[in-house]
Amino acid sequence: xxxxxxxxxxxxxxxxxxxxxxxxxxxxxxGTHAEALLVPxxxxxxxxxxxxxxxxxxVTLSCNLPSALIANKLADIQPGESCAxxxxxxxxxxxxxxxxxxxxxxxxVFDTVDYRLQLxxxxxxxxxxxxxxxxxxxxLGMTAGRGFDKVIxxxxxxxxxxxxxxxxxxxxxxxxVGVFTSxxxxxxxxxxxxxxxxxxxxxxxxxxxxxxxxxxxxxxGVIDARSYFSHEIRxxxxxEAFSKFEQKIDGTNKILIRP
Length: 259
Hints:
Layout: H1 2-5, H2 42-45, H3 55-59, H4 64-75, E1 82-86, H5 90-100, E2 106-111, H6 114-122, E3 126-129, H7 135-141, E4 148-153, H8 158-167, E5 168-176, H9 189-194, E6 198-201, H10 211-219, E7 229-234, H11 238-247, E8 254-258
Parallel strand pairs: 1-2, 1-4, 2-3, 4-5, 5-6, 7-8
Helix pairs in contact: 4-5
């Protein structure tokens, strides 16, 4: 269809924006937490994965890693620039690892979960507790008060986007790839306009065009996708996986579900 040809595969006119597990709102397709499933239009929306790519690595190709690639392309981090990443869940971690390859002079990570902040620090980023009242001030203090050149938002809440806009410098770029479900947001368009901010929204990501590039990162060892997985749980115990991830307990990051 037209949208797929121009790279907007998330807006496919043939499948009516179908997304696995999103229900009737987006194509009416069942979820992928199953022993087997039918893949309609696989010739246009799926890729072959080489045998040397592990199951855990392959899982990241469905959304996480391509989304992280998209975020970094939209932010267009240049060597020496300052970058803030708001949200350090699995996709945020991938954003950090890709951003590090682009040579930022300063990389700060904002999150509310202690163990995720500790992981960010191990990667060489400056961790900041986003729940702290002075989180924005601490971030701005790292940039002499002017704000970050580039900000990548990977949470999907009005609060996270608001923080991102407060953190970015005049003329800077905010790449928001979090999935926003709230219908109400107090966006100050005058501020975005007067500070010449470039705001990219890409939560409903067009991942298929970036699958091959993400696969190349895995195949050549640029990204170690297996490091994002903290647990492996059988399909029969999937409720445990959802509980761990929701409650952010036991150091849970990404969970591999096996049938």
